Amino acid sequence: MRKAFNSTKAFTLIELLVVVAIIGLLASI
Fold it and tell me: Is 23 left (phi over 0), alpha (psi -120 to 50) or beta?
């Protein structure tokens, strides 16, 4: 259960980084 939680947390962190990267690209255009 803890491993699954950590995996979900890591996935959320990666998702957040992807969203920030997309926003940065849109802002730079």
Answer: alpha
Dump pLDDT digits (tens) for 1-29: 567 676 777 778 889 999 999 999 999 98
- pTM given for the model: 0.58
Amino acid at 26: L
Task: Encode burial over 1-29: b for 16+ CB neighbours within 10 A, e otherwise.
Answer: eeeeeeeeeeeeeeeeeeeeeeeeeeeee
Report the residue count for the chain.
Answer: 29
